[in-house]
Every structure is written in C-alpha cells, then in structure tokens.
Recover the amino acids of this structure.
C-alpha cells in the first residue's frame, strides 16, 4: 500500500529552523498535489503549504508566508518543508498529504493520503 513517511521534526528554540521531509513509498503519487498540514493540541488540522504536481506552483497559509518554503526533489517523490524563524505558535504535529487533484486545496478533504505525522516543538 502506498505510504507517505514524514521525518525531520524535533525541538527547536524560537527563531530557529527545521526541515521536514515527506517521502513517497512508490510511484502512486505521480500526478498528485502534495501539501503540509499541522495540528496543535486541541485544535483542528490546518493547511500550511502545498505544491502542484505539474507546474510546481506553491500556496502558503498567511501565517507562514515568508518563513516557510515547500519544495520537492527532481523525481517529485519527496516533498520538503523548510521552516525558518520558527515561533512557539508553530508547535504542532505536522502531516504531509497527497491528493489526486491538479490544484492545491487548503482544506483536508481532497487529500486522500496522509503521513503519520511528525512533532515540531518550538520553545520560547
């Protein structure tokens, strides 16, 4: 079964950086839009950033624009989230997602594949 596997989370001080990776287990996700969501304790899962398959167009949530960058490798199998200038409010479990749509949607429901999540904790 096709899987998405995240890595790269951890504990960092405010102002620091982390890079998350999301690797696809096989070629199932060819043609899929890819995205990152996050979920803080007691909160709903929210969109962070996304990238389209064909053109690599990127979309960001307002609260991460200018600080986070989504990218992918040349084979389009691994997607990255570079997070700079981290703030305590960025603390959450981060999930990568894949959906068989051409556009990036900022809601959960078009995405039908999810990773297991990786914890990011930013201390003040």
């Amino acid at each position: 079964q096709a899987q998405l596997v995240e890595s790269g989370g951890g504990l960092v001080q405010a102002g620091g950086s982390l890079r998350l990776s999301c690797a696809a287990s096989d070629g199932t996700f060819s043609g899929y839009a890819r995205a990152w969501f996050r979920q803080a304790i007691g909160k709903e899962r929210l969109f962070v950033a996304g990238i389209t398959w064909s053109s690599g167009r990127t979309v960001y949530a307002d609260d991460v624009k200018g600080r986070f960058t989504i990218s992918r490798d040349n084979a389009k199998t691994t997607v990255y989230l570079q997070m700079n200038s981290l703030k305590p409010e960025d603390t959450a479990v981060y999930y990568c997602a894949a959906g068989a749509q051409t556009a990036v949607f900022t809601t959960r429901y078009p995405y039908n594949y999810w990773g297991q999540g990786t914890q990011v904790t930013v201390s003040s």
User: Anything to note?
Assistant: The mean pLDDT is 95. The chain has no helices and eleven strands. The first strand starts at residue 4 and ends at 7.
